[in-house]
Amino acid sequence: MKKSRVFWYQKLIVLFLVSIILNLVCPIQIIHAAVLDTEILTNVTTENNSQTTPEQRWQVEEQRQVDFTIEGSQRLDIDVKVLAGRKRAVLVYPSELIGKVQASTEARGEIAALLKLTDVAMLSEVLKAIEALLNIEIDLGLVRVDLTDFRQQVQLLKQIENLGTQSFTAPIEATDTHAIVDIDNTLGILLSDLTTNRLMNVLRAAKAIKVEVRVPIVGDLLATTLKTAIKLVIDLLDPLLASLTDPGKLGQLQAQLADAAVLGSADITIPTTINRPVGMTEELDSPFVATVTKEAVVNLDLLTQSSNKSFVYFAPEIFELSTDFPDNLDFGTHPVQMIEEENWSALTGENYTTGQLIVTDTRLLEKNWQLSVTQEGDWVNLGKTLPGELQLTLDPPKSTFIDGILEIPQNNQIHLQANQSQPIASLTNAQSMGELTIEVAHFNLYIPENTKKYTGAYQTTLVWKLSDVPIGP
Prior knowledge:
CATH architecture of the largest domain: Sandwich
Distance between the termini: 28 Å
Number of helices: 6
Helix content: 10-25%
CATH topology of the largest domain: Immunoglobulin-like
Number of domains: 2
CATH class of the largest domain: Mainly Beta
Structural class: alpha+beta
């Protein structure tokens, strides 16, 4: 508490305000190892670009655009192909932010995959026919045939089995609790587009193959074998490619390709908009689970146990009053007289002593508060009172609140009477966050005429009060 004293020595009055009471009413990057059986990446890096850390927290903005990125490589300790379900990137929101996170409509990233085309049921017969054709031993002395282009196109087809890094965008399925990117859907589209185009080139090359007999009879037999094998490739490819104009058949191929594919690596970004929680009085560390799984149904309860987490760090909301006053207000030394009224100014050197009050309010709610001061009791010295009146002169306030109604005392003057609360400022109907600064430009102690003064030290207590609801007239 800051208290006020009055000193009287040898018929000289020395006044000091020695204390005043203040009363207030009111991208991190983490690397993990996969730990859940359904998680299919290892060396996972999860990060976000919220630009928050435990030391640098989200302060006052109501909303931020935050991207979550999941990066990792394929686990080698499990056979991913035996897991049932679809491969998905999943972002699970912390419970305290449910309803506060809105995922974007589209994710982006890069993926690489490995697969065996022979594991794709819709392609198995065609691939067997292609392999049979390529395994025919050809004696160019008996027939004239050029399979160079056909072999090249088949080789390009097989290169799909080691799918290099591919950039992609994909739709996000979002709820109030999580966001999902269906990797199988993305893989299926990428792989089916490549596969279809390369199968078409294989078909074109097969149809362009010409077989000519050089040696009758023996050459005829080899030529017939080649033509039969070529025809089988064409007869299988033509209807297969034609069927892919049917969305259902195309979807079936995409699903089979995706299911056969094993992720070699993934780097997936899920953009979100996060709304800051309201009413926080303490620091908040919010863990987002960001991982890649393969399962029939996403098990959110299980995923919360994953170590693949990315944190957003929030600072508490601020509603506080801070003050900057000297420890003592020196009202000077004056000759004793009891007849005339007196006004004594607090001085620092030759200048008026000043003070400062700052109200900071970053709460995400409508602001309605009042700042007031109360002199609790008279100026007292061993049971004797001094009927002095402390008068404060305020400079015009400085406010960063952009809305609401700010009110201050008329003429910027405050006259303190014992046990009476005096308003200093009030703010109502404000939605914005901000800061109000009030400078006390002058402290004056008024002593009425005909006042009895007694030797000794007088003191009183001032209480500054910030009330969350404005005080009525």
